[in-house]
Amino acid sequence: MPLAGEVVGEGVRLVRPLGRGSHSLVYFAVGPGGQPCAVKIFDPHFAAHAAREYRNGARLDHPRLVRVLAPVRIGDRPALIVTLARGAVLFERYSRRPALTHDRRAFLLTLAHLLDGLGYLHAQGLVHRDVKPENILVEPGGSAKLVDFDLSGPAREVFAGPTRMGTAAFQSPEAVRGEALGPESDLYSVGVLLGWGLHGALSGPEVPPPPLADPLDRLLVALTEPDRTRRLKSAVQAREMLLKLSGLPY
């Protein structure tokens, strides 16, 4: 059922759909003063995801993360009012591939912003658990924000049984095994994205190596080490390494 024109919360008016994720539909909206925002509307059976996103996202305040502002309801569906992230999802923004060949400066800025946001998130004791292109919105110049915290939670959170979190192509080996996840698991996903930026395709035996060695190969190895105990664990350190190897002063 179309929801455009409906008013929710404290005078927030839904305007038009922006997109649909695996758990929710996102609408562009305007607040009572005309300020733009977004409303993330969950299917009723994903109410626990909405509650988790509000619980973990409401206390986050960083320019590289979407802010979760308030919970509301739209009929029988839970919803969240969040700040508006502008731009296109990462794979759409970097349509010329490999991104580090065709749009190197912007893609490096995207990765730097992603690591900046993850560094803040990890410092709060949280892990994102679903770092993937659809959850990274990128503006034309490369500026980026990380969205969607409905799978996020405390580092090393233990569930009743093995629980696989995330999206298969970007999961760390420990996520595939259903183990409790820490910051290094988010960083593995960043490494997959870096590999995509270098190769123009996701990692796998059929993907050829880049035609020329790249200084960022060192960071790729550090981020995608299969053994989590030997993998790079600090987003701050990863960002510093990215800037040093790329030679760009972000």
From TrEMBL:
ATP binds at residue 40. CDD domains: STKc_PknB_like (cd14014). Keywords: ATP-binding, Kinase, Nucleotide-binding, Transferase. Residues 12-250 form the Protein kinase domain. It comes from the Bacteria. GO terms for molecular function: kinase activity. InterPro entries: Kinase-like_dom_sf, Prot_kinase_dom, Protein_kinase_ATP_BS, Ser/Thr_kinase_AS. It holds the Pfam family Pkinase. The keyword DNA repair does not apply. This is Serine/threonine-protein kinase PrkC. The lineage of its organism: Bacteria, Thermotogati, Deinococcota, Deinococci, Deinococcales.
